[in-house]
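hey so u asked for the seq, here:
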Amino acid sequence: MRVQKAIRVPGADLFRDEPIPRIPSVPRVALVERLRGAGDAQVISITAPAGYGKSFLLRQWARVDERDFTTIAADDRLFTVGEAFLLAGELIAGSDPLVLVIDNAQLLDDADVEALIGLADQFRASCQLVLVARCSLAAVARLRSEGRLLEIEMRDLAMSLGEADLLVRSVDLSVSAEDLQVLVDRTEGWPVGLYLAALARRDRQAPTDPMTGNERFVAEYLRAEVLGRLTRAQIRFLVRCSALAFLSGPLCDAALRRTGSARVLRTIARSGAMLIPLDMAGQMYRLHPLFRDVLRADLDDESGASAMIAARAALWCERHGLIDMAIEHAQIAGDVNRTAALFSVYGLDVGWSGRIERMDGWLEWLAARAPRERYPVVAFFGTWINLLLGRERDAALSAVVAQDAQVTGLMPDGSSHEAWVFVLRAAMCRHGVDAMEKDARLAIETLDPYSPWQPTASLLLGIAFMLSGDLDEADRYLADATETGAGHYALITLAIASAERAFIAILQGRWNDAAAWAARACDLADREPVRPFAAHGPAHVAAARVARHRGETEAALAHLAIAEESLPALNGSLPYLAIQVRLMFARCALALGDEELTRRRLDEISELIRRSGTFEKLARSADELRSQLTAAEHKVAKDLRLTGAELRLLPLLATQLTFREVGEQLHLSQHTVKAEAISIYRKLGETSRSRAIERSRSMGLLPD
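ran it, structure tokens below
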């Protein structure tokens, strides 16, 4: 590191970070390159709480930069801000290119930071000002809007999986990929947390133990470096806040029964505590999970305090329309009934808007604390989630509870219990297409006219008509599903309905319409990050067919890859959708010349049809496609000029039989078999039996 002009403050080290622990320096290659490429930024801010490796990053940058690096530690116990400006001015007057680092910038007032930025306006092009702080600096907002600022924040300094692996290995600890991922997730990539966790696991030789903030090394560091910088009142405030999943001034005021929380949060955030901002305005925060563990350990000493605080937070969140947060706080409070009630009332809004993973987590939490029968509405939602995730057995169990429940009064959408049953029965389609059509019609007729289930009922009726071969009537109901679904923002229904409309357009040769609907389906389906998930399959297989039609082979293969990821979720839970997607997939694969993949999809279709015992039209389509596959395979054989005798021999070559044993089966001499085999090798362009077999499989002449 080249530091020719370093201003030393008594008791402070150049590029100082936290004095303990001395963690190994892991190369932060991407961040260093980002800093080196930021020549247009007059000011760089590096902000993160203790232990995020701000100093390490600066050292690594300085080693590869030709300029001089000079640091001034903004510690008001050692020198005044005015003296810092004086020293900075002396440096700027020089002729050498330099990087001026102001460490602990969070100790400066906004006005002082603005003055330093004004000083940076006078820098030559070869000079930069770097502000290092434990929290974001409000005074840099003007630079951000003008594009003259590079910001390195907590999320940037969090270690990637690869960097974490290097750090863990540096302490002679070996963990599995799964355990490493758990450590990274639990620490959120916090470098010191990862290092201390690795030390603890190495010393006690228990690398798979759950990671918490109350592990000795981690807790000691947090208490010394974070809590040690706060007042008793601030610590007391944070301890009580640890009962909350999210923090904002109004929420904390309501949950903690106090006032002025917004000001306290801003002050604590400015101190560099491990408060993670959730918005640009700095009004909403959350505690780093390990820091929260330490605080909650103190809160647990107060009998029942956590539950009471969380319960008040749940009520406040519900009143302000923050339903996800309301449910999360009800769970923290351990209130099963309130969690189920919130889930029942708002589940439709949450689920159809593309938050299936979150709903699934709530279901898992409830299932561990109460039987399905206690909450029929929750059982309905559980059935839908299991259907969309392909959990056939769980969906069947939940469906029995949902349908057999004795419900008095109306469901949350104002409809009868019977109307919800009609929708569910139509979706599961256990008694054939005619029954599906009947149930979907009954659902449309009996649901409340404004029910969020109406678009889904139209979607199911449209699919029923499509399965029976009436494409025009199918498209009419699918159009209704897309129109009404947009009003309810029924994301999943919209995605599947759009894909189905793309299927119809493809079958009718309306490729421009198919492209538009497929693109919309992909956009909607991809907003749900869960994989595998039922809606991704129809959307991306439709897009693949369109891409193949346009001759865009790479795009078609990319969409097929995504569709294939969804296939585990497309099984007997939603059999018609599973068959539709595989049929469209197989057609696309055959058009791309992949006979083996086509055959695999067709075999899966046969099994699904065998299990369901219905879907005659889909079965006929599959038979037609299998005939096309056979013709394509015969064409390959014809192009190679394989004789009938050679085609009869080829499958036996793929066995472990010797030429003599093959000859016995075919009633041929060993020499005749060998001669025909050599002829096959020559036509395939291979020189050995094993390579010829591989080549035959890749060309679809032999099964995989």
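Confidence is low (pLDDT under 50) at residues 1-20. The beta strands are 43-47, 68-73, 98-103, 128-133, 149-152, 247-248, 275-277, 284-287.
lmk if thats what u needed
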